[in-house]
Design a protein that fits this description.
Blueprint (H helix, E strand, L loop, with lengths): L14 H12 L2 H13 L3 H29 L3 H7 L8 H38 L5 H8 L3 H19 L2 H28 L5 H8 L8 H14 L6 H7 L7 H29 L10 H11 L4 H33 L5 H21 L15 H28 L2 H9 L8 H25 L6
Bound molecules: tryptophan.
Length: 455
Amino acid sequence: MSSSGIKSRDAFATTLGAFTATVGSAIGLGNIWKFPYLTGSNGGAAFVLAYLLCVALVGIPIMIAEHVIGRRTRQNAVQAYETVIPRQRGWSAIGWGGLVAAVLIMAFYTDVAGWVFAYVFKSLRAFVVGTTLGQGDFAALAGGTWEPLAWQLGVLALACFIIASGVSKGIERATKTLMPLLFVLLLICDVRALSLPGASAGVSYLFRPDLAKLTAPVLLAALGLAFFKLSLGMGTMTTYGSYLPEATRIFPNAARVAVADTVVSLLAGLAIFPAVFAFGGTPAGGPGLLFNTIPLVFAKMPAGGLFTTLFFILTAVATIGAMVSLIEVPVAWLTEKRRLSRPVAAIVTGAGMFALGALATLSQSPVLSGVKIFGKSFFDLFDFLSSNLLLPLGGLAIAVVAGWLLARTDFQAELDKGFAARPWHTKLMSAFVKFVAPVLILVILLDSLGILRLS
Ligand code: TRP
């Protein structure tokens, strides 16, 4: 329970619990599936470099801004932005945009999560019968109709069930116990992948940037990925901020979350690219990259099939933590403002997500594969609209609220909480929230629209 006296709201019990839950939201398919896939399709190390800069210069400040606003208001994201600046209710648009983004993200996220759950069973079966999953297996799954839809529905039902059972209990318990295991298994993957002959080409691909590749679309993709991976720009972190204990130190907590999230992404990259190069695959393998590569990493190892299964089990767990945090945004609003019970709110939210999600899933099957909007399938369109547009725009607005409209003293007071005396970084961070983050977001957005030319 928070010390702010709001008794009806659930809250993270401890600072450690708040950290693990935040990490649980941040770490998910963004790290294990999206980071390697986008790195591969955007040319490698230059993208990684741009991504790291976006995390440090934009991601951490925006996370701070969201946590400050969340903890100050202790409300769901829509109401938080409605009330945080007195007499300026228009900022609740950030919360509304966030609800839209949550549904758009979940539409393709649950499709991919469904593939992960399917791969738990497929890899186990392959192990039992003594085969290895290949490219054909992934193509058949993702390009199918009923099979991916059924997995998607199952995954969504599971996540809604967890949400319906309450914040601290549901989220904290699952993430605290299983995240460390995922970390260890990624390390095993890395050792295995790095010891393959020819692995070093994959390492250079990740870490030796060719700066000529830093084009406008690459920069925008890196920015979008930073928002997506850290769960920023749409209210998830505002909502989690509203559950933060008063004693939690906002900047150190945000920095630790960003570091943990980045380490897990790089470990995933180090498991995948060395193997891609060692087996003569192509880095630009698209959304199937993870599913086509991991079985190969383990293929020739003793009990490799079991490791593959374990890998997908732990990825599935990470995925649940992230999905729960996405569903929590609309659910918190529906329960607090619309007075629905948690189970009803979870069902309503899940149904909306499945309606759009089915479009994303079927856009890869013959049913809807011919339908293109702005040249993109529903799957790619939902991803682009949410990660590359709504989240950065939301982040920009959040930076304006926290950095410019919120009283300076209020902002600093939140950042100082948990410290006996004002720490050195409070002023620095407020400058990042006020200037660095919004200017960079604006520059990258304008650059990608062709209004401003960086290169
Ligand atoms: N960060 C999660 C991941 O990497 C996905 C996620 C959870 C998210 N909550 C979010 C993305 C809010 C954007 C906004 O898998």
